[in-house]
Amino acid sequence: MTKVTMTVNGKSVSAEAEGRTLLVSYLREGLGLTGTHVGCDTSQCGACVVHVDGKAVKSCTVFAMDVAGSEVRTIEGMANADGSLGVVQQAFQDHHGLQCGFCTPGMVMTTAALLANNPKPSEAEVRHELEGNICRCTGYHNIVKAVLAASGQDAGAMAAE
Amino acid sequence: MPKDTGIGASTKRREDVRFLTGKGVYTDDLSLFGQAHAVMVRSTVAHGRIVSIDTSAVEAMPGVLAVFTGEDFKDVGGNPAGWLINSRDGTPMREPKRPVLAHGKVRHVGDAYAAVIAESYAQAKDAAQVLSDATEIEELPAIVDMKAAAADASNRVHDEIPDNICFDWGWIEDNRAAVDAAMKAAPHVVTLELTNNRLVPNAMEPRASIGEYFPGTGDYKLTTTSQNPHLTRLLICAFVMGIPENKLQVVAPDVGGGFGSKIYHYGEEALVLAAAKRLGRPVRWTAERTESFLSDAHGRDHVTKIELGCTKEGDILAIRTETYANVGAYLSNFSTATPTFLHGTLMAGPYKVPHVYVNVKTVFTNTAPVDAYRGAGRPEATYSIERVVDKMCRELGLDPFEVRRRNLLTPDQFPYTTPVGLVYDTGNYQATLDKAVELADVAGFEARRAESAKRGRLRGMGLSTWIEACGIAPSHLVGILGARVGLYDAATVRVNATGTISVMTGAHSHGQGHETVFPQIVAEKLGIPASSVEIVHGDTAKIPFGMGSYGSRSLAVAGSAMDRAIDKIIAKGKKIAAHMLEAAEGDITFADGKFSVAGTDKAKTFGEIAFSAYVPHNYPLETLEPGLEETAFYDPANFTYPAGAYICEVEVDEGTGKVDVVAFTCADDFGNVMNPMIVEGQVHGGVGQGIGQAVLESTSYDENGQLLTGSYMDYAMPRADDVPFYTVDHSCSTPCTHNPLGVKGCGEAGAIGSPPAVVNAVIDALQRGGHSHVTHIDMPVSPNRVWQAMNA
């Protein structure tokens, strides 16, 4: 076991890790940040997406030691400073973009990274970019709406309901 | 202005805030002092005799605390089936024991025969691999194909069951001769053989369980991913482990989706309890996704021959089916109800068909158990009916919309007794069909088809008119049908002294939004803010009783229990108010949160009454108990019957066979709607799963019983770019006639109505595109299958 240090949600943190400890385990078990979820074992589902140095990363695919010293952001770090929901989070609530909530942290983190790179994505771009995040509850309708709304676009008109 | 609170308002979900900020608490998020980790050792072969398990190989490994094998559980009970089904000859179904851990034989890949408990997960995982290597299993030929299994008596999943048949069920057997005669006399008979593909439910949260044992009291606690903690407690206590029910607390905290797969009790739950007792420490287990694929109860898996007798004008005269239903290696809790009373009773669909007969043979195979998955039996029925009706239209050259209109029950026919044992209470199937036609712009289809053709794509349109029986279920009726439990539900409404309210409900929310919707109803009925109402669910120590959430029953059954309990609160409040206001009880009215003396301005607020109930200084103590808390159990008088019309448009790439669902329209009748936003979300999700079944999802076992689709690399889950925006409508409402809220349930609708609409659309596209020989393609309509069909 080695002590691994990194910055998570703006705070310097450290916890013990083995060489085989994945970033997601480090976050969940080492730091108690259980908002990042494990939904599969093949890096397909995206429930574990966090940001590492500003990029969306599946934290089940990264060893904790490999990102020592990095800036990591998790779902616990997405709210506004006053504790209110951030723009992406608020859009997901406003548009009922979540049901059981299990895939939600990964969806929010992927969305935030997507919008940072592409502030006004088309519906097709949103759907393409969300390919790596599986949701079993929503049929994606309201997730796509939420992402479009978070980008400031008229999601209702784009969904043509 | 739309309402933002109360019944009918699209109130935003309060639970979202914790889920959106990473503060949800799912089972695997809990960390307990002193916890040990369990890893299951699962069979790598589909069928075999356990020759030896050398536990000494792992007992000395670092961190290993205990090893369990089937030997440890051979003297406890088995995990039972909840419904007793009799065969046509009157003999009861065959019920092999389903042990906590396999003993003697392993019966499917993934069948757990041992478990290792260690200090850390990694140590347990390492040891489980070593124990797997130290186990000798004599491999037997795998029984995978249902019809072959039923035909071959020499190879048996369970040694004591000679033909691998669980039961051979006829519904309704006494009507068989009349149905045969009607079929023989019919001017035209359409025949279709189809497969309802096996699905893996794939709730995004894998199953997880934590067992605790408290030696000071002898109490157990199980925290688990369950849709119905009381049922799990009942099964563990009364059938498997013999723990008194008052010594086991079952908690289902935040649960990340279920879709049926978390209704059932699984062996891992008993294992962690037994291990916790032996070790005196909490023991936790969390499935890897691959374990979910191998060991969660799967869904569907029917092979059906359906015949439909009709006139040349398209009047349906008779329907007859023969279905083989796979139950897998063991009987999961609802597995015998799903292909029978949730399937056969729906085989009249929404149509005025006079003669229906259903035969279902359920077969044991060396595959994972199969049980209810979103819709459960009703999607299988709907798919068979709507596909064969579509085929009838093509064979007779009739318009599928007109044929439906011709055969749909009309509003004046309700209540309507079907030939398969149900009484539909209300509906207006023409209205939902008309609404779907309007919203889908059926009139504009030809123009869209021409535009698709310009891009080299074949466009097709498919229709399905569906009905389901949900709000499960009237206990008396299901008792006659073989259920071993009642299917009522319960609620306690506790008004606290300060006027806040706690509702303990037997329903369990794992995505459905009960924490938001149930308070909307309480607030409306009591004239108080929804924010002062909290919903308590998922804990056998806190709630009176409950059968959980599945079968679109939460509002229809548990919500009705809550409604009744609120009525009792109001009734008691009137007695208290009568005393305080010095009026006759009969003169007290309750509205807008106030108890008033009719015709006067004398009134007490709800809060004043609550306070008086707990501080009974001016209170009729000689005739009325203090306190304001009421419990109601509600047993529904009938099933509920949501129905609707779904229209799908697809584009098919003629070169590759790839199917794209480009438009999907739903017009549903769910009765009264409590929260439209949530109802629409439920339909979206169901349709997404239905498109997944129709286009993408295939569960494949090879001839050796190896699961070829055991991960998300191989099993095609629908993703955001596989589906379009959906158009959904629920304005054609005929409220349920027999529950107090007038609700019918919406959770399963999308998954029931959508698969046939998709496949009908694909056949339509191919037929219009000149591939007139293609009359059926089994689901999923993969590029390979569609291309092969076009080029056959």
Secondary structure layout:
The complex is a heterodimer of chains A (161) and B (792).
Chain A: E1 2-8, E2 11-17, H1 23-30, E3 49-52, E4 55-58, E5 71-73, H2 87-94, H3 104-117, H4 123-129, H5 141-150, H6 155-159
Parallel strand pairs in A: 1-5
Antiparallel strand pairs in A: 1-2, 3-4, 3-5
Chain B: H1 16-20, E1 36-42, E2 48-53, H2 56-59, E3 64-69, E4 105-106, E5 112-118, H3 121-133, E6 135-139, H4 146-151, E7 165-171, H5 176-185, E8 188-196, E9 208-214, E10 219-224, H6 229-241, E11 248-251, H7 267-279, E12 283-286, H8 289-295, E13 302-310, E14 316-328, E15 355-364, H9 378-396, H10 400-407, E16 416-417, E17 423-424, H11 429-439, H12 445-454, E18 457-467, H13 475-480, E19 489-495, E20 501-505, H14 514-526, E21 533-536, H15 554-580, E22 588-591, E23 594-597, E24 603-605, H16 606-614, E25 629-634, E26 643-653, E27 659-669, H17 676-696, E28 726-729, H18 749-768, H19 783-790
Helix pairs in contact in B: 9-18, 14-15, 17-18
Cα-to-Cα separation, first versus last residue of chain B: 57 Å
Give the overall pLDDT of chain A as a whole number.
96
The secondary-structure element order of chain A is: EEHEEEHHHHH
Runs of chain B with pLDDT <50, length 5+?
none
Globally, the shape of chain A reads elongated
End-to-end Cα distance of chain A, whole Å, is: 54 Å
